[in-house]
Design brief:
By secondary structure, this protein is an all-alpha fold. It is built from eight helices and no strands. The radius of gyration is 17 Å and the shape is globular. The two termini are about 35 Å apart.
Length: about 170
Amino acid sequence: MYDHSVMVMDISRDISNALDIEIDEDVLFISALLHDIGKTYLSDSQEFLTKNHESLNVVVSQEFIDSLNLSIAQKDLIKDIISGKNQSQESQIIRDADALAMYKDERLQMLYIKRACSNDLYTEITRKVDKFFKVNLGVSTNIWNIWYHKFLENWWQYLKQIGYKHEKFDI
């Protein structure tokens, strides 16, 4: 999770630089690092954490955020962003970076593909692929398009290699 959060922060920086807009980098980078922190919350249900982690992000990170040497407005914005309650430019950048992070990391791609295939999670893989097309900022698509195509290539190669069969695939 640490590597993913750092990657989201790095991609967020790249997207914001490509957009050439004024944003609060402290808010952007801290929010990017904390965007999935709710997944570390102790729970009996991994599915709950995966689908509802945003509601726990502030619970897990409240004390840390409050200890930062930032203005109250910055701290409040970070809390709003990581809880999914904000539509600021920083929030849009982080959502795009999060959606694209898996495409940059081939090791993570293959782990995800293997897990999804072994569990017959056609819907989950399709959701990940569809995330690419839901990025909010056009620059995100332009910058990271090559990662998406590499993911599709890895996915199809792995499916062929294992002889994966599904009624929605024609391999």
